[in-house]
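User: Hey, my collaborator sent me this sequence without any context and asked if I could get a structure. I don't really work with proteins. Can you help?
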Amino acid sequence: MDLNRLYSANRLGYNNTTAYDPRTVFQRDFDRIIFSSSFRRLQNKTQVFPLPGSVFVHNRLTHSLEVASVGRSLGTLAGEFIAENFKHELTEESREFYKYNLYNVVAAACLCHDIGNPAFGHSGEDAIASYFTKNEPSLKPQFLPAEWNDFINFEGNANAIRILTQQQNGKSGGSFNLTTS
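Assistant: No problem. I've predicted the 3D structure and written it out in structure-token form, which is a compact way to encode the shape of the chain:
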């Protein structure tokens, strides 16, 4: 594995950065997710943690922010470890990335880990598949075969990739226009 090739500042779609921005491209990825309507919609989805003696409930927005906080800390530790323990194999640019930017990439990934999940998580996935399967005769003719397959085999993680990479209203080509890291 070549640690010098595991990250990229290249963006999907059109790169519309301003002449001066003090943030790194990886910090901008995090910000693009935070300010997106897709991310904000997570506030309307419940996250339930069954704990012994009680049930802890909050929304997926709060959960995703908590996961991103933990991910940022782990990304910092991992980045420092890689920069120090593989310094002879890394270019200067790569050492800088691992030391100062890996945590942004990890935190951004953590932010969007639930972005494609329906309400009620896996039960919601099953409900979507069940609805379309049950109503196949009237619904199937309205969809292309690939679209139909997506509905009867609905999977939140695949939907997240779709949300993050397909063009959204008001966005330039490439949807969130995230880096390929």
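In plain terms: The mean pLDDT is 89. You can pass these tokens on to your collaborator as they are.
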